Amino acid sequence: MEFYRSIPLHIQPDTLQERITLESMAEWSSEFFALQPVKGDVVQIGGLWGEFTLQRTAVRGGVRFTLIECPNALTWSVTTNHPPNKEHVHVRLSINRAEITEEFKEEITDFVDDHVGMLSAYLNA
């Protein structure tokens, strides 16, 4: 299942990769908090769904984040310079389930909406 949002903000992919880091997580996410110091491209985090290892990977156009131990294989990307609008930042979250409870769907929708709001404010600052 996928969730998708677009932020009307023109920013270069390398700028996304420079600014959206695990070290700056408190600036762009109110959903997670670091439990330990960042080690390379991973950090132990806590949040609504429990404790996980959060991995950050640079990808074409931006960054991807993965909750390593998540039973739903939750991952999200923040990219730009891609269709349908190359002038926007795109946030795409996916899980490995075709069907989920309405409660879980609301949790994910709230997560994506909060995440997009924080990212937008952070990137516009």
Descriptive report:
The protein is α+β, with helices and mostly antiparallel strands. The protein has one domain (2-124): Alpha-D-Glucose-1,6-Bisphosphate, Chain A, domain 4, CATH 3.30.530.20. 27% of the residues lie in helices and 34% in strands. The chain contains 3 helices and 7 strands; from the N terminus they run βααββββββα. The chain has a 7-stranded antiparallel β-sheet. A hairpin with an 8-residue loop joins β6 and β7. The chain is globular, with a radius of gyration of 14 Å.
Describe the secondary-structure layout.
Blueprint: E1 2-7, H1 13-19, H2 25-28, E2 32-34, E3 42-47, E4 50-59, E5 62-67, E6 75-80, E7 89-94, H3 102-124
Antiparallel strand pairs: 1-7, 2-3, 3-4, 4-5, 5-6, 6-7
In short:
With 125 residues, the chain is an alpha+beta fold. Helix content is 27%, strand content 34%.
**Bulk shape:** globular
Instruction: Give unreliable regions as ranges.
Output: none
User: How many structural units, i.e. domains?
Assistant: 1
- Measured by DSSP, the beta-strand proportion falls in 25-35%
CATH superfamily: START domain
SS-based class: alpha+beta
Helix content: 25-40%
Widest beta sheet: strand line-up = 1-7-6-5-4-3-2
Described by strand count, sense and barrel closure, the largest sheet is: 7 strands, antiparallel
CATH topology: Alpha-D-Glucose-1,6-Bisphosphate, Chain A, domain 4
Q: Which architecture would the CATH scheme give at its second level?
A: 2-Layer Sandwich
Number of helices: 3
What's the β-strand tally?
A: 7
Write the element-wise H/E pattern from the N-terminal end onward: EHHEEEEEEH
Average pLDDT over all residues: 94
Cα Rg: 14 Å
Q: How far from one another are the termini?
A: 32 Å
Regarding CATH, which class? Alpha Beta
